[in-house]
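Hi,

I'm pasting everything inline rather than attaching a file, because the server keeps stripping attachments. The sequence lines come first, and each chain or strand is labelled.
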Amino acid sequence: MTDWLAPAEWQALALSLKVALVATLAALPPGIALAWWLARRRFVGKPLLETALMLPMILPPVVTGYLLLQWFGNASPVGRLLTALGTPLAFRWSGAALAALVMGLPLLVVTLRTAFEQVDQRLEQAAATLGASPWRVFIGVSLPLARRGLIAGAALTFARAFGEFGATITFVSAIPGQSRTLPVAIYELINQPDGEAGALRLVWVSLAVGLLATLGASLLLARGARARSEPAA
Amino acid sequence: MIDIDVRLRRGEFQLDACIRAEVPALALFGPSGCGKSSLLAAVAGLLRPRRGHIVLDGRCLFDAARGIDLDPPARQLGVVFQDARLFPHLDVRGNLLYGARLRGGADPVALAETAALLGLEAHLPRRIDGLSGGEARRVAIGRALLSRPRALLLDEPLTGLHRAARRELLAHLVRLKQELRVPLLLVSHDAEEVAAIADRVALIGDGRIAASLDNAGFRTRHLPRDALHSSTLADTGVDP
Amino acid sequence: MHSRFPRWALALVLLAATALVQAAPPTLFAAASLKPALDALAKAGALGQPAPRLVYAGSSQLARQIEQGAPADLFISADQQWMDYLAARQRLAPGQRRNLLGNTLVLVAPRDASLMVDLTRPASLLAALGQGRLAIALPDSVPAGIYAKQALSALHLWSDVAAQLAPSRNVRAALALVVKSECPLGVVYGSDAVSEPRVRVVARFPPSSHQAIVYPLAIVAGHDNPASRALVEALAGKRAAAVFRHWGFDVMSTPP
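And the predicted assembly:
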């Protein structure tokens, strides 16, 4: 089994899984908050926020990568601060995770916002009359009723994060162990005249990961399909 | 003690409601569209009146002049909505205990008593999408009761149920009223329902409270002669 | 229906057909590093009228596209391996391949950096790098990166810097990292350094340290026609040579 992939490829796969998982989990708090605000609140500048969120999807990934380099690279003010704190993003897997998060966040917000918009606000009113603070209403009623959207959005974000290439390689290059993810490894192979077979092998690996992610999401969706006695705390 | 003096307005519609009553059960009676459900929503904190005040059991819930407007959780009222509004992601037990868990913890004794009072013992593990209209109303009532409310607000509890379910639920409500320790505010356009439960009735019409009657006075004016001896009332054991 | 098509109408149709054929300009697929020079040549009208369509990308992408039938008439690759790739698959017009340009490999730093590097001493390079990374193109798959790895290995510097590399998608991206001061040093083509005023050459790799950097030019199989040949002549001509030299390329005067 260990001969099936070269050590460098195992490393790329492990790194991709780590980066995608971290990016997805880190995207959840801001993604849930943004989706909620966009679904429920009216405020000045709302179209501006919606457009800003769409930018990573509209812009070429390389452009997004250059923007990240501009704002978080070693030579930027934020980058210098991070380096001083000992947590630089440039040329690190954390930078790769940030790139993946930025590219995947719009998918999470769009999916989850639709789910929140479909939650009956009269149920939220009922919860309030029963003593639930706005936070409790959100955690105990709105979020559970939007869980299908949350799981689907998270699965989409993970898939996008796992396959992220353009922004990542532009921002944090392709450093083995830090930012040489599986998509980068595939790119390198198809850039070699005899690399197609190797690239195909890694494509199968990517498909397997995608399949597992889809299965995982389906399991999560099925598990919650039955109502529980215990409401979410 | 219920002290309401508010003006409600939404678009063309306006209602000036002034009621003071010191009875266990007060009903707001009037035809569809007269504003009685809006008034209930205002008491619950879901609707903001233009002006006035709402005082319940000595607590000021709303006072425009003094800038008081308690949010729904702070009002501690048990509201039973006309559309039940049960939580689909919880089963019957989960729904019943939702408010209780927020206000001090689930009391198994209280749960058992309430379930018995409303005939829900057998339904506790059921999913709510399988409940009939009457069963759903009863769960909604139980949920409101178990949240330790300072008053119970019922919005048209019998409306939309078929005859047998109405009879059954009305019997539960009458029994409930006897057990209840807190004030009850009932909104209805059904004279039978009101007569069976309310000690005092505020008649709403023409954008204001047209009259305030006690139970006997209400029955005389609004129940047909033969209904005084209807089987419904006989079932519930209430003397006309 | 006329039994005899009027001669003047026939002449008109032929004229129109010729015009149509001539109106479609030839398409040149070229390695990305040639963009500044070729764009300048096209703008100056030195590549014939009408000006050819210029398509830039990595040599590997272009070669694979040509293999799959992309409508290219000419191809200039950044190294021999991708031209050989097409030759092996009979995708080149016979007898029309030649070496057009050469290039050098240089070490660059941001313009305002005041360091110099002596490539014969590893300590010099490492000191200049400090905590930073050396920007190069992907060393196993992009021509500029392959040459860089060859040169650094030949100078016994590879093992010292291998852990401090920042491999980029292509040589322009590596150059950009140096321009933005994200990397203190970068290995790029001499032509890149010429076209980018915001970097400074701090050392030159001896030509002997790497495989000769050659840009071969060929006509794609099935596209050997007067227009393509005219473009080849324009690219190999004196006027083009002057422009290429201006942009930092070496001009090869003889076919392979």
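Chain B is about 35% helix and 25% strand.

If the labels don't parse on your end, tell me and I'll reformat.
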